């Protein structure tokens, strides 16, 4: 219980610090959202102070001193009211995030879980059969694929499978002629549009899970309790999974918690290349347009997700390895 209470207290303190940083970062950026609109208007002549004030009022630019803005920001966080988007005015921030989040959760979330499960199992098999082709093939392939950046792999798949072979759509999450909804036509069309972005994320992340699990597993196989289990005549699969893999998975589990927490942030580069309307694509446009409400909502959502994932991993650590509770 003390272990759980200490983890919960650390979670609350970290969350407060993250909220404060999330408030400060957009305000440290040069310029304001009104400057872009004023720059366009100034081409037709000088802009008066009254015009600037009207533009700022229309965009909902925060007023008052920093303390007043900070208190208003905390109230908005508690009520989940982030105002309207500057870039996509007058759409509410909450509705825009709600539209983009399902695409990111389905795409990045499903691929992250799949890559972790498949990569971990392959890493276990490679370590258990080390020195054989079952070890060399996934290790070399994973190392090779991990060297390719996200955007480079995305461009290769986009060019060959999209433009040359015309196997998959090249942009968007669904066709313009398809009406979004829980229908077979829409789900099939959305799945076809998600193949290339999903393949990009899977190919570039799978190698890391394989190598991480393989190296941790090899170190664990040299422990005394594994040797004792083998000496007792237990089956190889039992020793590999219940003794070696259970302890070797702890470092990979930490990485999985971070990756799973970052799922809601999407993959900015991949979504930008494919024009996929997820959270990463929305975040890119928010930064370009200096959209404070949208940026703060997205940063807050990503931060809270990572903190919650880390908290759950800490709790799971205490279950899998009782030594951490002491």
TrEMBL record:
Subcellular location: Cell membrane; Membrane
InterPro entries: MetI-like, MetI-like_sf
Domain ABC transmembrane type-1: 101-313
PROSITE patterns in alphabetical order: ABC_TM1
SUPFAM superfamilies: MetI-like (SSF161098)
Primary location: membrane
Pfam families from the UniProt entry: BPD_transp_1
Membrane spanning residue stretches: 100-128, 149-170, 190-211, 253-274, 294-320
Its membrane topology: Multi-pass membrane protein
Keywords associated with the record: Membrane, Transmembrane, Transmembrane helix, Transport
Family: Belongs to the binding-protein-dependent transport system permease family.
Protein name: ABC transporter permease
Organism annotation: Kineococcus gynurae
């Amino acid at each position: 219980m003390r272990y759980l209470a200490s983890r919960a207290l650390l979670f609350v303190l970290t969350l407060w610090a993250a909220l404060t940083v999330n408030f400060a970062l957009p305000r440290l950026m040069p310029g304001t959202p009104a400057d872009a609109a004023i720059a366009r208007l100034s081409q037709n002549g000088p802009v008066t102070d009254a015009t600037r004030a009207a533009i700022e009022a229309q965009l909902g630019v925060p007023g008052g001193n920093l303390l007043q803005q900070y208190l208003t920001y905390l109230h908005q966080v508690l009520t989940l009211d982030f105002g309207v988007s500057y870039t996509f005015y007058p759409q509410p921030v909450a509705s825009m995030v709600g539209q983009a989040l399902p695409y990111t959760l389905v795409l990045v979330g499903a691929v992250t879980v799949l890559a972790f499960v498949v990569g971990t199992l392959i890493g276990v098999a490679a370590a258990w059969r080390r020195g054989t082709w079952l070890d060399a093939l996934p290790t070399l392939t994973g190392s090779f694929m991990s060297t390719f950046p996200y955007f480079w792999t995305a461009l290769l798949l986009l060019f060959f499978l999209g433009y040359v072979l015309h196997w998959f759509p090249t942009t968007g999450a669904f066709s313009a002629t398809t009406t979004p909804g829980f229908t077979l036509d829409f789900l099939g069309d959305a799945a076809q549009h998600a193949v290339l972005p999903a393949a990009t994320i899977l190919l570039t992340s799978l190698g890391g899970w394989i190598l991480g699990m393989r190296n941790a597993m090899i170190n664990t196989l040299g422990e005394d309790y594994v040797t004792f289990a083998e000496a007792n005549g237990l089956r190889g699969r039992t020793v590999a999974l219940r003794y070696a893999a259970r302890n070797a998975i702890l470092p990979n589990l930490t990485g999985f918690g971070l990756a799973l927490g970052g799922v809601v942030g999407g993959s900015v580069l991949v979504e930008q290349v494919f024009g996929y309307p997820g959270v990463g694509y929305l975040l890119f446009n928010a930064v370009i347009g200096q959209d404070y409400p949208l940026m703060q909502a997205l940063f807050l959502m990503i931060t809270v997700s990572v903190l919650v994932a880390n908290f759950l991993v800490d709790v799971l650590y205490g279950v899998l390895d009782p030594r951490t509770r002491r």
